[in-house]
Design brief:
heterodimer, A: alpha/beta, Aspartate Aminotransferase, domain 1, Aspartate Aminotransferase, domain 2, seven-stranded mixed β-sheet, four-stranded antiparallel β-sheet, 13 strands, globular, B: alpha+beta, Sufe protein. Chain: A, Arc Repressor Mutant, subunit A, GMP Synthetase, Chain A, domain 3, three-stranded antiparallel β-sheet, three-stranded mixed β-sheet, 8 strands
Chain lengths: 394, 278
């Protein structure tokens, strides 16, 4: 096994390290305190208290009320719950507004709605500009009387581009349309105060903010019509059946508390490291292009295309130095086509296949940035020397 | 993450014969930037007509680079006639195997070699002649038919793994299934294919098909005095034998396609092709 201390981990939009403080609060619930929070004895009751505490911690990070927090198993479950709930609450409405750059959790769900629900649905997939941003006028035109729900991600996982969720949610609310946002990448990285917004549903995932895998949250604004996705026991006030994943919920609570404490660092030191990495790569490597809006972007994410070389080959060379990142190339997606996000932005194929996403966290150091800045230019130059499309003088 | 053999990793990290020969005897240019991989192969012959040097330039993933590198190593020292016999399977085997989704990289190697030989001989590249089936990746019907025959492909998914056809928008998938059915039927060598060792996935398929026959299909047929037996499963091809009243029933072909195939597609896999054993 590769030892974690030897790894230069810059793939935090894929998943993050569990913070030591998070693990610490989880362990007792995996060992001694195994009671069921629903039980009518103090041994279970004390576990229920820990779950309630976590609910408060999550609510605090989001600027929401604890009772608006529903624990789920992952971001995908939260997304599905929100969208299906809206469709069932408004059975006569058969229109959804979303974007072309959503995470597969929303994108593929919207593509398969007809099969999943047995009804014909109209899905408007908003296009994005070359810098990955949305046109709000087109958004406004897409909303109509038939629209059951809008589902738009807060920040894009591949490029980090942030959408104007506050304004978009307001526009939906004015027309009586429910608004869902997949905020899996945004939570913990940028401030979110839901009580000031018109967002009805928000999804988040534990493992993207230094919590454990296998736990997520769906925020459901008080008063929003709701139909559960997992029907069963009375857990989560009947909004999500199934015995609680107690240890992970407790861990997620702590992770949210830590995220609030680290928010300033994320937007100053981490952003500084990201900018240094980005500027360093763009200036030392010719034909390197930044994908996504320069400023309306998460502080930790940088997606750069290295023209005329292929992403999987770049990643495997980086792997030789224990540097972890991601690519939007076809070969890494498991499909034969490059990332749908980069294609939606109109990134030319010459660049899409050679895109690398670096996503940092508070655990990254300046030494790591220097190390990556030292290793990347020869990797790209070596692969270009092998590429039939690369002209040395270009 | 892909599971690459040591040999693939070696050839990827330390590729042999990178570059382009000046004034080559043959040049093969295949693939494109849009497709995500491309290979330019050049070779030079000695006075006896043996490949004295071969060089490659590849844009693509680790397995594309490794396939190109190992290909140059293989063909140096071969006569053109020998080189012309190198198949994509040879390239993959020499690398200790490739993940099945990456077999198209070895096909690209073989295509570049073929194009380079054709270029030397002043011939047209035979595969480019066909009709384009998959527009996303510019794959012709001839290329698809060849992959089906040479690598004994038995499903559309396998065709995509080997040629990339069908891996984009998916519009050509029905056409690919037609080509698959037609090619397998013309192909004489079905027996040889059937003798190839079955993979786990086929075993799982068989189990599921048996289950579906038993629970859903047989009861219906038995009501009418008929019965059905599973004879073979080869890729997506399911061979069955109709028994009892079915054998003399004029509608047995309709039963097969409209009932058995439909049911199996619904319950097991929607790409299955059901046929009667003869």
């Amino acid at each position: 096994m590769m030892k974690p201390e030897n790894v230069v981990y810059m793939d935090n939009n894929a998943t993050t390290r569990v913070a030591p403080e998070v693990l610490e609060v989880m362990l007792p619930y995996l060992q001694d305190y195994y009671g069921n929070p629903s039980s009518m004895h103090r041994f279970g009751g004390q576990v229920e208290a820990a779950v309630s505490q976590a609910r408060k911690q999550v609510a605090t990070l989001l600027g929401a009320d604890p009772e608006e927090i529903v624990f789920t198993s992952c971001g995908t479950e939260s997304d599905s719950t929100a969208i299906f709930s809206a469709l069932q609450s408004f059975p006569d409405k058969r229109h959804i507004v979303t974007t072309r750059v959503e995470h597969p959790a929303v994108k593929n769900l919207c593509e398969q709605l007809d099969t999943l629900t047995g009804h014909k649905h109209r899905v408007t997939r908003l296009t994005v500009a070359a810098d990955g941003t949305l046109d709000l006028q087109k958004y406004e035109e897409a909303l109509d009387d038939d629209t059951a729900i809008v589902s738009v991600m807060w920040a894009n996982n591949e490029t980090g581009v942030i959408f104007p969720i506050a304004e978009m949610a307001r526009m939906a609310r004015e027309r009586g349309i429910l608004f869902h946002t997949d905020a899996v990448q945004a939570v913990g990285k940028i401030p979110i105060v839901l009580k000031d917004l018109d967002v009805d549903f928000l999804s988040l995932s534990g493992h993207k903010l230094h919590g454990p895998k296998g736990v997520g949250v769906l925020y459901v604004r008080r008063g929003t019509p709701f139909v559960p996705f997992l029907v069963g026991g009375h857990q989560e006030k009947g909004r999500r059946g199934g015995t609680e994943n107690v240890a992970s919920i407790v861990g997620l609570g702590r992770a949210c508390e830590l995220a609030a404490a680290h928010m300033a660092e994320e937007n100053s030191r981490v952003k500084g490291l990201r900018d240094k990495l980005e500027q360093g790569l763009l200036s030392s490597i010719p034909h390197a292009i930044l994908n996504g809006h320069k400023t309306d972007r998460l502080p930790n994410t940088s997606n750069i295309s290295f023209e005329y070389v292929e992403g999987e080959a770049i990643l495997l060379h980086m792997d030789q130095y224990n540097i972890c990142a991601s690519s939007g190339s076809a070969c890494t997606s498991g499909s034969l086509e490059p990332s749908h996000v980069l294609r939606a932005m109109g990134v030319p194929f010459t660049a899409a296949h050679g895109s690398i996403r670096y996503s940092l966290s508070i655990y990254n150091t300046e030494e790591e940035i220097d190390f990556v800045l030292e290793k990347m230019p020869p990797i790209i130059a070596g692969l270009r020397q092998m590429s039939p499309f690369w002209k040395a003088d270009a | 993450m892909w599971e690459y053999t040591n040999k693939v990793q070696q050839h990827f990290l330390h590729p042999k014969n990178v570059g382009e020969i000046e004034n080559p005897d043959g040049t093969g240019d295949v693939g494109s930037l849009a497709c995500g991989d491309a290979l330019k192969l050049t070779f030079k012959l000695d006075d006896k007509g043996v490949i004295a040097d071969a060089r490659f330039k590849t844009f693509g993933c680790a397995s594309a680079i490794a396939s190109s590198s190992v290909l140059t190593e293989m063909i140096i020292g071969m006569s053109l006639d020998e080189a012309a016999k190198v198949t994509n399977e040879d390239i993959a085997n020499r690398l200790g195997g490739l993940p099945k989704e990456k077999m198209h990289c070895s096909v690209m190697g073989r295509e570049a070699l073929e194009a380079a030989i054709a270029n030397y001989r002043g011939l047209k590249i035979p595969m480019a002649e066909g009709e384009v089936v998959c527009e996303c990746f510019g794959v012709t019907d001839l290329e698809v038919i060849r992959a089906i025959t040479e690598s004994s492909l038995r499903s559309v998914e396998e065709i995509t793994n080997f040629t990339k056809a069908g891996g984009g928008c998916g519009k050509c998938i029905d056409r690919l299934r037609e080509i698959l059915v037609a090619t397998v039927h013309q192909g004489v060598d079905i027996k040889a294919v059937a003798e190839k060792p079955k993979r786990m996935t086929t075993l799982q398929k068989i189990k599921k098909i048996e289950e579906a026959l038993e629970r859903e299909i047989r009861p219906g047929l038995r009501k009418d005095g008929g019965d059905i037996e599973l004879v073979d499963v080869d890729g997506d091809f399911v061979t069955v034998s109709l028994r009892g009243a079915c054998t003399s029933c004029a509608k047995s072909q309709t039963t097969l396609k409209e009932y058995v195939e439909k049911k199996l597609r619904e319950l097991v896999l929607d790409s299955l092709i059901v046929e009667e054993s003869k």
